[in-house]
Design brief:
Elements (H helix, E strand, L loop, with lengths): L1 H28 L24 H19 L5 H27 L7 H18 L15 E3 L3 E5 L5 H26 L5 H22 L16 H22 L8 H18 L5 H5 L1 H20 L9 H7 L4 H28 L4
Antiparallel strand pairs: 1-2
Length: 360
């Protein structure tokens, strides 16, 4: 369990002290955020604030994961490596998007098709690889069974092995696209997405440790979990939580730096990877309830306008709606953090309750 603590502390220190150095680097090169003119007027003061801060989060997470393993001379697992691959790959896609926005000084970076192609390529590679690398018991980092708090009886391989793999690739792409874009939509206020991400990763630390203590490899029984590398996934989650905590010091209102698509796509991808590898694919909908709320608000807004030419909200995502109602940005952020915390608490409650009743 010490590796979890080392990962959290190492990433916190790297992010906390690495972010201001990165801010100086970005300012010197004039890499500042472009702000949309049709957004809340209070955001215009943020024009020129350094962005691409997600690069610090990604690097701090990767370095801290390595430090945790080097500290105890343990071997990284395929589950941890593949989840970090998903995070890094999507982070690179986001970095390219951010860089184009900055270099062209407009709010659009990669074209939607280019961005989707990049996300799909990374997600497909992850989905293929995560079904490989069985351990000595034959367990792979993921399975073709759809999971909630553990694998259910719904197996995508009902159409055969090849068909099951294809269906799993599609399913994994849906999860990755949903989570990465949801975090991206939520990242519209200082510290909002960062703080909410801290809570989700904290939940996955607890889930990983619990699954490790109740794992079928060491504690066979009715309630045990068929997860390949739960402890290492807790280390990954701890590294991500610490890096987000350190970054939040500088990203909190008034933000000195934004994470950009580099951070939001990477963090969303990491959540998806953890959900798939810990066999909690549908539970992420509850744990990331705030991100779901933000995404649904955009879907409702777009759908309503296309069907009726009327808008439900003053502006979507929904955090902008409350800004335009007169709420201070910090008020919206803190209240949305409360919602995020309640969703995480409810999700963990469901996870534990399922174990108490003996597994379903």
């Amino acid at each position: 369990m010490l590796a979890v603590l080392v990962a959290a502390v190492a990433s916190l220190v790297i992010s906390l002290f690495g972010t201001p150095a990165f801010i100086k680097f970005l300012v010197k090169r004039g890499y500042g955020q472009f702000i949309r003119d049709d957004g809340p007027t209070s955001h215009h003061t943020k024009r020129g604030t350094p962005t691409m801060g997600g690069a610090v989060i990604v690097l701090a997470t990767l370095i801290a994961y390595a430090v945790a393993h080097l500290s105890f001379w343990t071997t990284p697992t395929w589950s941890g490596i593949l989840v970090l691959f998903l995070m890094t790959g999507l982070g690179i896609v986001g970095f390219l998007d951010d860089y184009l926005k900055i270099s062209k000084q407009r709010s659009l970076g990669l074209r939607s098709k280019q961005k989707l192609a990049g996300q799909t390529l990374v997600a497909v590679l992850f989905a293929i690889l995560v079904l490989q690398f069985p351990n000595h018991l034959g367990r792979t980092p993921a399975s073709t069974r759809i999971s909630f708090v553990r694998d259910t009886n719904i197996d995508l391989a009902f159409v055969g092995t090849i068909g099951g793999i294809i269906l799993f690739i599609i399913w994994a792409n849906v999860i990755v696209a949903a989570t990465s874009n949801a975090v991206n939509l939520t990242d519209g206020l200082d510290g909002l997405a960062t703080g909410a991400s801290v809570m989700v990763f904290a939940a996955y630390i607890l889930i990983g440790i619990w699954q490790f203590n109740q794992n079928c490899q060491f504690n066979p029984g009715v309630k045990c979990y068929e997860v390949r590398d739960p402890h290492d996934l807790a280390v990954v989650a701890a590294a991500a939580m610490g890096s987000c905590f350190g970054f939040l010091w500088w990203n909190a209102a008034p933000a000195k730096i934004f994470m950009g698509d580099t951070g939001s796509l990477a963090l969303g991808g990491l959540m998806a990877g953890l959900a798939i590898a810990t066999r909690t694919e549908l539970l992420i909908v509850v744990l990331g309830g705030l991100f779901v709320l933000e995404t649904v608000s955009v879907i409702l807004q777009v759908g309503s306008f296309k069907l009726t030419r009327k808008r439900i909200f003053r502006m979507a995502p929904i955090h902008h709606h409350f800004e335009l109602l007169g709420w201070e940005q910090i008020t919206v952020t803190i209240r949305f953090w409360i919602i995020a915390g309640l969703c995480v608490a409810f999700g963990l409650g469901l996870f534990y309750a399922e174990w108490v009743v003996g597994g379903t």
